Amino acid sequence: MAVEDRRAARHVAEFAAAYTGAVLDYVRALPADALDPVVDALAGAVAAGANSLYLFGNGGSHAIARHLDLALRRRFAGLRPLRINCAVDYHGNQWLAVSGGFDSIFEGILRSEGASGGDLGVLISGSGDSTNLLRAAAYCRANGVRTVSFAGFDGGRISRDGITDVPFVVRVHDQQISEDIVQVLLHAAAEATYRRFVGAAGSRSALPRYASRVAASLERLRPAFLERVGHSVCRAFLAGGAVYMLAPEGAPLSVSAEHTAHNLNWDAVFEVPHPPCRRLHSTPTHCDYSGIGNDRLAPGIVSCQQLDAARPGDVLVLYARDLASAPAQQVLASARSAGVTTFVVAGRSGRAETAGADVMVVGSDDPDVLADSSQIAGHILGRLVRMRLRQAVEPGCVIEDLTAYLVGGDLAQRRLIDVVPGL
User: Which of 55, 106, 174, 328 has a CA between 20 and 30 Å from the CA of residue 132?
Assistant: First the structure.
């Protein structure tokens, strides 16, 4: 390995350690009762039975809302019926945006369902300044809907007195790190809510216990693997190739696949001059049982169909809880036939056929832990791709302190979806 390559590898490893350390250190430093108001609100909504939980966010915050939805449904399956809406009716939401404006989407959902007292709104915003969430909060306030909000940075407008009932601010001035902290906290809150509901002891210790499980998984992230993925994705973008982020088993990893595709389409080109076209394909928009594949009965069939269009030089990042599962194995076989460069993020590998694939196993069967570790890996990957793109499209671009560049700089920005309305 050349000296420059060794230097880059060292900085990538330092960056990954700094990033994951920032998430875990913040969570571990919180007091034991930090999540009590959040758990109180969730437990009240779950106990209410017929009332609804509205989990709303934009971009990465939308992915966090969907992870919370899945976590709650999994824990309370067969125990308590839940009515949850996290704005995943894409066709209806598109119409709300076209007819009433993007700022009206969440308010429109609340209004159409007649959200009222007994319901709960969980509003997630990286900056705390998303207008559509502020309008949702105003509707909730006017109609007796209890609200919890999560925001990063200084909390923004949504965290001001009287806007939501329980404002929780993650005081980290980095969009993606704050997102990851919020997701970890909400997974811990879901666990604490469940323990309280069934009368089990230790609801307050749910956060440190869960953080320990996440830490064990993050220790298995391999910076060299993420660097190889980043290099291949960047090369595909620059060559006009396609990148596939597929999770044929569904569940939280499917949301993480979509979230990472979102990062590569958005954050990876943030302030990159004249970025290349990104041809991205992600499972949730083409899965076996919804969208154009809603009559497909063979597991993994739509992911395989997507790969029918793949060509050598394209990149597949496959997310699999169990790499030996039939859907994952079918997708790997399709990838081999197409000649694409294949990377795998797996919870476990088992006795799987992985010929030709570059595999990273994070060593967990816990769906929430898999969601968090894969999302954090996706955020790290997005920054690595962005670094390589800048070096490729900006002649003479020299990054003197690679670690500092990856951890901070203009990457620690609010999303443009929050910034543009304020300009």
Answer: 174
Mark residue 396 as left, alpha or beta (left: phi above 0; alpha: psi -120 to 50; beta: remaining).
left
What DSSP assignment string belongs to 318-369? Answer: EEEEETTSHHHHHHHHHHHHHT-EEEEEEEE-TT---TTEEEEE-----HHH
| Residues paired with 242 in a beta bridge | 279
Q: Tens digits of per-residue pLDDT, 118-143?
A: 899 999 999 999 999 999 999 999 99
Tell whether 200 and 276 lie within a shared domain.
no
Residue pLDDT, tens place only, 327-345: 999 999 999 999 999 999 9
What residues are paired with 317 via a beta bridge?
A: 245, 343
Decide if 155 is inside a domain. yes
Contacts of 168 (CB under 8 A, 6+ apart): 37, 38, 148, 149, 150, 151, 185
Does the residue 417 lie in any domain? no
pTM of the full structure: 0.93
Report DSSP state, residue 50.
S
Those residues with Cβ within 8 angstroms of residue 409's Cβ, 6 or more apart along the chain or in another chain: none
Query: Where among 204, 237, 257 does a domain terminate?
Result: 204
Q: Which domain holds residue 282?
A: 3-15+217-411
Stronger pLDDT, 408 or 10, i.e. the higher one: 10
Alpha-carbon distance of 201 to 183, in angstroms, equals 23
**Do both 224 and 105 map to the same domain?**
no
- 3-state SS, residue 312: strand
Q: Which long-range contacts (CB under 8 A, 24 or more apart) does 298-305 make?
A: 299/248, 299/325, 299/326, 299/327, 299/330, 300/248, 300/326, 300/327, 300/328, 300/330, 300/331, 301/330, 302/248, 303/246, 303/248, 303/327, 303/330, 303/331, 303/334, 304/330, 304/331, 304/333, 304/334
**Pair (199, 247) in one structural domain:** no
- The DSSP bridge pattern shows strands 166-169 and 242-246 to be unpaired
| Nearest in space to 178 (alpha carbons), one of 155, 161, 196 | 155
Domain assignment present for 188: yes
d(CA 327, CA 190): 29
Query: What are the two backbone dihedrals, phi and then psi, of residue 85, each rounded to the nearest 5 degrees?
Result: -130, 115
Tell me the CA distances in angstroms from 8 to 101, 205, 219, 289, 399, one per residue in order: 45, 39, 20, 42, 11
Assign residue 98 the CATH number of its domain. 3.40.50.10490
Average of per-residue pLDDT across 295-300: 75
The answer to whether residue 416 is domain-embedded is no
Question: Of 183, 204, 225, which residue is a domain's last?
Answer: 204
